[in-house]
Amino acid sequence: MSKCEQCIVRQLNSLKTLTAKELSKISACKTTRIIKKGETLFDEGDHINGVFCISAGICKVSKMSANGREQIIHLVNKGDFLGERSLINDDVANLKATAIHDMEVCFIPRDEIIDDLKQNPEFSMSVLKDMAMSLKNAHNLIVDMAQKTVKQRLAEMLLSLDKKFGHNRDSNLDIHLSREDIANIIGTATESAIRLLSEFKREEIISLKGKNISLLNVPKLKKIAQGF
Amino acid sequence: MSKCEQCIVRQLNSLKTLTAKELSKISACKTTRIIKKGETLFDEGDHINGVFCISAGICKVSKMSANGREQIIHLVNKGDFLGERSLINDDVANLKATAIHDMEVCFIPRDEIIDDLKQNPEFSMSVLKDMAMSLKNAHNLIVDMAQKTVKQRLAEMLLSLDKKFGHNRDSNLDIHLSREDIANIIGTATESAIRLLSEFKREEIISLKGKNISLLNVPKLKKIAQGF
DNA sequence: CGATTGCTTGACCCCCATCAATCCTCGTGG
DNA sequence: CCACGAGGATTGATGGGGGTCAAGCAATCG
Question: What is the value of pTM for the model shown?
């Protein structure tokens, strides 16, 4: 099994603040799992008892609403942590994590992380910063959900997908989402999302080839997201 | 000026984990302000450079959306902190805080808190827990905003106001919000909120006397919030 | 006691949820 | 290699929720 010390994604998250000693301790007790596209990493109500560190792949983090529809809260890229919230509050999972592309994740058991949090102020400060940043993002999302139209939210989502996950030479977004997932991110019905995507396509703001989406007119998208 | 050591609200937040020494240091450098109803404590973009501890009163925490409407993210009661997010990320304020009832707040300058965060693991763990809990609440709010109807959100809000701020002998809610604030919490137009309040009144689920609201039929409200 | 602000109700219309039908795509097995 | 079935994608039709404008009404304040 590969070691944390040699893992590239370690540089991307709070683990970078750990000492060599702390890191090798974690490396010794971590376990690695492969999660195929569509499989769930954990579900609402699960006792996670640790945190996951995504070493490859992308997953969606979502929650079921009372009316039975899934709301995607955010998308998690490689290098990110998953499950810290539950760990810190000693709580069951509030959200569900499902692989969108095939993933490789490392699981670090609870006690190991808690020890480091209590003993390494730099590490706990870094986790605190991550959490604070997540909170800011969540607050901004609340405002968008409450105040923006579906069209605005779709435009904004496309821009943020491009920013977070990038695109290839043909300017196709590197992330592949189903129409349903797109709808569940912006909080609308699948048909509404599809309709707006076609509208964007007709107006040559984006192009659609199967699951490939490419942004043809970013400035226009930005204007739409702002409400014009 | 009164001292933190004798302040009752200290027991309600993370300050309770501080040692006597740390607390008296904070007590020595804090400043106290009175904020009248309607006045703002800080605005989006402000450099706060510290945290506020609410010793009395209630305030709303909100953000302007692109279309010029205010979205209230949450309400803050006495005993809560304000501004930790900005402090931890070394960022300007992302939100605006406005007094809803007259307030007394204590301001603790940045460096003082940062020192304690780095040196007292119990304190930083407590702040981390608060932040994690806020994040959970924010996530749940995102789902509600995206998936529930305005009617459901109004019912839910009334229940949570009752839970968080309580009510007096006549079962009138202790918190007094304008119709506009109510609308800005649930993310709708003022007229829509008013219309639904009248509907609840007609069905004798609540009663309205000026700014006094009392919940007459809590079970019914819970059903409405769940979508029946 | 004007005047300003907040509250309430009516009218109108558009966005979007929902239901339904069709088309497309892709994996599977014959 | 093709047929076929199943799930996803697309488009149409329809109705209701809720945003917006406008006009009275109540209340608060200098």
Answer: 0.95
Give me the domain span that covers residue A112: 4-137
Tens digits of per-residue pLDDT, A81-124? Answer: 999 999 999 999 999 999 999 999 999 999 999 999 999 999 99
User: What residues of chain B score a pLDDT lower than 50?
Assistant: none
B178 in the same domain as B118? no
Any domain includes A95 = yes
Q: Which of A108, A137, A166 is the last residue of a domain?
A: A137
Q: Which residue is nearest to nucleotide C24 (CA to C1')?
A: A210
Protein residue minimizing CA–C1' distance to C25: A210
Q: From the candidates A14, A73, A142, which should be mutated to test the interface with B, based on the most B CB atoms within 10 A?
A: A142
Q: Which of B108, B137, B166 is the last residue of a domain?
A: B137
pLDDT score for B169:
85
Instruction: Return the structure tokens found at A220.
Output: 């226009």
For residue B142, tell me if it sits in a domain: no
CB B221 within 8 A of CB B214: no
- CATH assignment at residue B31: 2.60.120.10
Q: What is the pLDDT of residue B228?
A: 82
Q: With an 8 Å Cβ cutoff, are B131 and A135 in contact?
A: yes
Predicted pLDDT of residue B160:
96
Whether B102 and B170 share a structural domain: no
The answer to whether the CB atoms of B66 and A148 lie below 8 A apart is yes
Name the residue of chain A whose CA is nearest to B133's CA. A89
Q: Tell me, what's the pLDDT at B34?
A: 93
Amino acid B64: pLDDT: 95
Instruction: Spell out which residues of chain A touch residue B124, defining contact as CB-CB under 8 Å.
Output: 121, 124-125, 128
* Mean pLDDT of the region A159-185: 94
Question: For chain A, what is the mean pLDDT?
Answer: 94
User: Chain A residue closest to B186 (CA)?
Assistant: A146
